[in-house]
Amino acid sequence: MKKHLLSGLVVLSVLAGCSSSKDVVPDIPPSELYSDAQSSLQSGNWTNAIKKLEALDSRYPFGAYSEQVQLDLIYAYYKNDELALSSATIDRFMRLNPTNERLDWVLYMRGLTHMAQDQNFMHSVFNIDRSDRDPEPVKKAFADFKKLLQRYPDSQYAEDAKLRLIALKNRLANYDLATADFYLRREAWIAAIKRCQEIQKTYPNTEAARQSLPIQLEAYKQLGMQEAIDRTKMLIQLNQS
User: What is the pLDDT of residue 28?
Assistant: First the structure.
């Protein structure tokens, strides 16, 4: 019995050794390893690309490919939905290469990474509106794209950044609208009014700003503030025309 158990353990250890050896990146010249990583990137094999790029990054941190390897890792991590690693690599790259000519792309990727952190696959599949979710990643993405436009107005990523800023502004406005509605349902009339006014001031050209007016009107009615009621009714009429 012991012999069979021992032989079984030996077989398992051999199999484990074979399995782990497959995961080890071969010790080949950096140029060849980089070429293999590029092939994996081009074919969309993100996991394999990451494995080889990480090997390059750890074995040759100051090599000829070091900066490009980090740039490739940013993209591969993002595509492989390893957003925390993508974000960490971005921060590292920006810290070590403050004058790199690709910083506009790096900033653009940081915005995309923060945007992706606001997504939820199941919510997308079932078309569930989650405007009430914490918008912190959205705020960070908004800041990234805004900074991109300020620092690199002629960047090839500027036009896309402008479009994303519009979408992000709507996302933030919808979050504030959901918060105002929550306050209204909790009968926190003053808090609801303040949040509605904040939406109208910060995001004046959004659908959320228009939708905040009926919430504001109801809160004023509950407080019996006739002058404010009349003023809000006028704003609603103006926004309907």
Answer: 82
